[in-house]
Design a protein that fits this description.
Layout (H helix, E strand, L loop, with lengths): L2 H10 L7 E5 L2 H7 L4 H4 L6 H10 L11 E5 L5 H12 L6
Parallel strand pairs: 1-2
Length: 96
């Protein structure tokens, strides 16, 4: 069994819920975002060349088979709006 599915089972066996969200954006937006200074400190790609290599080497766009996945194109959508969309889609609640 793939490692990802084992993780899902570990959560679900303890009454947890896995909510899959696929965030996409245009290639120009993605390449612009990848160079933002805060990304390197978070262990994320911080160079366009590294991003391009990763995108060419693996499929990052196909949803996990057999699992509901909510897809959002966030090219021109603020992070707060995307968060609200996810909360609404999955019927999640927010803390006061």
């Amino acid at each position: 069994m793939p490692q990802t599915l084992r993780r899902f089972e570990a959560v679900e066996q303890h009454a947890g819920r896995v909510c899959l969200v696929q965030l996409t954006c245009s290639k120009p937006a993605l390449e612009s975002r990848v160079t933002q200074p805060h990304r390197a400190s978070m262990g994320k790609f911080a160079a366009v060349d590294a991003l391009r290599e990763s995108l060419a080497a693996q499929d990052n766009f196909t949803p996990i088979p057999g699992r509901e996945s909510y897809s959002i194109d966030n090219t021109d959508v603020a992070a707060e709006t995307v968060a609200s969309m996810i909360i609404e889609h999955f019927g999640l609640f927010t803390m006061p």
